[in-house]
Amino acid sequence: MPADSTPCPECGAAISGGREGCQAQMDALNARARSDVRYASTARLAFDTYCMQHPATYCVSAKSYAAHLMGLCCGVDFAGNPVIYTALQRWLNGSKALTKPPVPPERGSMTVRDVAAATTPQTYAQAVQHWAATVWADYQSQHALAHDWIAAALAADR
Q: Residue 99: CA atoms inside 13 Å, Cβ hemisphere, count?
């Protein structure tokens, strides 16, 4: 770990500024996706991945947890199918009685710091896909739940 780095308490990334530095790196990735269309195709997956690595910040309610868990699932298991993303948004709109599952202690070996090191659109997309896969793997115990919620969202959208 570099001498000026403090681990992010949520994902463990060794980044100058700790949690705030970690968020600044994610904000920079979001800005890159907004300013260069070549990076935009993985923006949703990157955001859901980041959120599931930072559940104390982004997944406080059961509804936000479900949104990001299903978004991560959609991005990894369903190749970011836009029909599914739309169904998820509709399904979560309004009141929804959901129970938030426990957060796994491990949430991926890669972090936003690893993704930020990518220097081309191709290596960035590959890094985001790999990052999402490592986080999704650590949510293994919740794969069936995410798939059930997605099935419910799709059924309700018909």
A: 4
Q: pTM value?
A: 0.95
Distance CA 63, CA 79 (A): 22
Tell me how far CA of residue 47 lies from CA of 54, 105, 137, 155, in angstroms. Answer: 10, 20, 17, 25
The residue with tokens 């992010």 is 8
Distance CA(77)–CA(56), nearest Å, equals 24
Q: Quote the distance between the C-alpha of residue 101 and its chain's center.
A: 16
7's CB contacts (< 8 A; 6+ apart) are 1, 13, 14, 15, 18
Q: Residues 80, 13, 127, CA angle at the centre, nearest 5°?
A: 35
User: Using CA atoms, how far apart are residues 27 and 132, in angstroms rounded to an integer?
Assistant: 17
pLDDT tens string 14-63:
999 999 999 999 999 999 999 999 999 999 999 999 999 999 999 999 99
- Per DSSP, the residues of 88-122 read HHHHHSS-----PPPPPS---S--HHHHHT--SHH
CA nearest neighbour of 25 among 41, 135, 37, 5: 5
